[in-house]
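step 4 of 6: structure.
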Amino acid sequence: MDRAVTISQVAALAGVSTGTASKALNGRGALRPETRLRVQQAAEQLGFVANAAARSLQTGRTYTVGMITTDSIGRFSIPLLIGAEDALGAGQMSVFLCDARDDPIREQYYLRTLLSRKVDGIIVTGRRTQARQPIGRDLPVPVVYAFISSADARDCSVVPDEADGARRAIRHLLAVGRRRIAHVTGPEHHHSAQMRAAGAADTLAAEGLRLATPVLYGEWSEAWGRQAAGILLSTGADVDAVFCGSDQVARGLAEGLRDAGREIPGDIALVGFDNWDVMVDGSRPALTSVDMDLEGIGRTAAEMLLAAINGEPVHGHQARPCRLVPRASTAV
Amino acid sequence: MDRAVTISQVAALAGVSTGTASKALNGRGALRPETRLRVQQAAEQLGFVANAAARSLQTGRTYTVGMITTDSIGRFSIPLLIGAEDALGAGQMSVFLCDARDDPIREQYYLRTLLSRKVDGIIVTGRRTQARQPIGRDLPVPVVYAFISSADARDCSVVPDEADGARRAIRHLLAVGRRRIAHVTGPEHHHSAQMRAAGAADTLAAEGLRLATPVLYGEWSEAWGRQAAGILLSTGADVDAVFCGSDQVARGLAEGLRDAGREIPGDIALVGFDNWDVMVDGSRPALTSVDMDLEGIGRTAAEMLLAAINGEPVHGHQARPCRLVPRASTAV
DNA sequence: CTGAAAGCGCTAACAA
DNA sequence: TTGTTAGCGCTTTCAG
């Protein structure tokens, strides 16, 4: 709990002025190498760390971006954050993560906090991909939406192409020889459920096929997956594959099917969505799944934010492709 | 992307000096109520948000604390963060979350970043409860360790009392009439595995009992739990309950036992550890588990940090009790 | 009750 | 090559 060291103490120890010390430490100006070294050693010796507040007051830059998760931080925000950090870390910028917990009041509070801290830009994320109202109007810093998208088409939003994910899942099932494919997913009103179901239907239609049963909408839970297994089998539909809207649904379905004596993938092949490690690895057999590349989305969002900070804003939606990760549940 | 508004613009609009405007907006000094109101309205009208850098330069306080997760952010860090935010939010302080990803270089980088940002204090967390080397020496701000603990006994560390958790698990199993209890857990060298195993053994010893089999050490995974089921049954030990070192192990064990035709809790009762929602709810039957109250740990850590910031530091380890959450896997 | 002025720590012109 | 100086936007004495 020592008091912090200022640049004037460093300058004094090195026997130079503060201006010279500043140049020496920031590699600016023209200094004798020897002087530069002397200042650097003094800084080292005193454990000097520049006061960011003073610096930003002068330069107008903080080299910090804020990330607001409108829903609670979790499975989606973390990879997004990691991707953003990777893209920003190269430029020595850091990320200030704020959890608005799905509360508009808290969200506006954090927005104010970030603006008062004069962050260079803001990334907004959330648990659902559905479009949301812009977080603010005429903000003094650029904003990029990641995973979630802004309802204002002029805003920059980096989102997963969920229909693409569904397409890859269906194509994969077709490739391993399945034709009678069902789709079990989350709530009918959920944006992701809709996109994925539409993507699946469209892909089959393009091949002159259709889903073996109507889409089974339910919840994003294992319990629903288990229940859906019973429903599916009771319809008597001769299904040889199921594309699920989430890994949790898929895992529940796998259990339900196994309990009913069906072999996976022998009788029925299974594809999930999210590629959530604990689910795909915990499932028996291990679950083929669609990965939305959240890190990539975070990275791209950060890159677009950097572009905007540098005066070259990108507008509109940027849809990024998904990736299929094959595992035992669809092995040939 | 408008330019930010400064207090002098507010002052100009309200027809007062910047000093007066400052007092009006911060509720300090003695001002005519009418003046105060006029300034507040001007600020409102212009959308004024005070520049935190300028303020902190003057006051030396940033009303920000940094939180460094030494391991990657995840299941443990988030509730800790939420708890800390709850405790700090009351005092209008915000939390800057940094993910060091288990990389000492990154950790030191973030430490420097936080110090340069002049945070009022730092909370250090991690994925394991084991003691770690202090993050720095003679830092200019107070530090509190949450969940993880510092190897320096003088540092303030808020940790879960894992032996207490184990005790509650065993007591619960005894209370529902079980006597032949086994323990299946993670790696033998893992601090948490050791604490929990010791807590379980001690509690049984206090009742004149002992574990029905030697502790089964393995991994923190469902796969190990399933494997352990086979091992347990092959020993022929007549076990009527298993206390598991984690929910994942417990879930795997539940599956393995069911596959072998055992009823849960009829033949064998099961208790997990962590109270991780997707595991306890996904398990069949739903899993009784030990909750370490991570939010409470985060809250306490933040309170201790606040105390230290206010000049009343608390030293040493603060162990917090766990909580048992009974579910169907131990229902009578 | 209000204004003027100094200064927090740093950077960036400009002088020397 | 180095030092001097003027702020960045805000708070806070101290006068008035």
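step 5 of 6: annotate
 - Residues 191-206 of chain A form the longest helix (16 residues).
 - Chain A touches chain B through 51 residues (CB under 8 Å).
step 6 of 6: archive
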